[in-house]
Amino acid sequence: MPWTPSEQLLAPLAPWFEQVKRAMPWRAADLDAPHPDPYAVLVSELMLQQTQVATVIPYFARWMASFPDARALAEADEHATHKLWEGLGYYRRCRFLKAAATEIAVKGWPADLDGLAALPGLGPYTAAALGAIAFQRPTPALDGNAFRVLARLLLIEGDPKREAAALRTWLAPALAAHGPSRITQAIMELGATVCLPQPKCEACPLAAVCTAKQAGRTADIPPVAKRVAVKEQDLWLVAVEADGAYLLHPPSEKGLLAGLWRWPVVTAEPETDAAAELPAPYRAFEAEAWEGWTQVYTHRRESVSPLRLKFGERFPAPSGMAWIEAADLAGLALGRRDAKLRDLLKRPGTPPLAVPPGLLESIRDQG
Fold this sequence. Notes:
35% of the residues are buried. Helices cover 39% and strands 12% of the residues. Strands 1, 2, 3, 4, 5, 6 and 7 form a 7-stranded mixed sheet that branches. The chain starts with 5 loop residues before the first helix and ends with a helix. The protein folds into 2 domains: 6-214, Endonuclease III, domain 1, CATH 1.10.340.30; 231-364, Alpha-Beta Complex (Nucleoside Triphosphate Pyrophosphohydrolase), CATH 3.90.79.10. By secondary structure, the chain is of the alpha+beta class.
């Protein structure tokens, strides 16, 4: 059955959004004009990928204070950008943002959607969101929240992403009629605050025209995607200290953790007896531990046991590792898990019940 025209169906969104929109530092006051700072929109969109608004706001403020425009970011030291991104996660976004800013600083802003999509790190959604919010182009942006809103509104069976092309075509007239920036952000707001997996239909401006609500099917539209199995892993996160310095892995140039320093990690073997006596080779130095925690990633859960091994004298750093003076630790860019151990080092730990046999040898073999 043909869908009701979007400019008609989505008309209630515009006045609703004006009343309920949340205050965000990157949101323009005038939603009918091109954004006065497209770079701010770019920064916010990259930061918001897989990250909640409340988490992003303080990072955005600090970032804009340090790198206020594309040229400032393009000329920035990569270590400084990673340090400022520290704790936000998904560090590839930081590298993509700097690469995109470098291209913009040299060539200027792309003139169309294809040009925006060609910028580093900007997939179809981010490019379309940038086009609509920053430049008032009727480029429909479809993320998970938007797919959920439209799937319920139009009663789309199955995975709504299979209808992505048709939905973009359907949505474009509403953007043109009611404002690309306004409608794009209104759909985002609706999906983030009202049309949740457990929807608040009583607060929805589209409830009267929502086909899924009328059919009593908001619970199964869209269908819940199957979750990828999460890998469980136990590990020791180890700070090896000697003569006022710590042993760490320097940043790599590629991979998920590129640009970040890392503590040595030793995977706990299932057969390790956690209650075993501390092996004799480790009694010659100080060892202390802290309460562990669970570090959750998209497809992995780590049971982390933090540990410090303190020697009197430094030994040669294994290949691929380096000694870092304790005074310089605070300035290193670390991932969230590794930053947590750095913070723990500021307070005393307790003697560990055990250290797995071969732990120091495993660290030395990591290079």
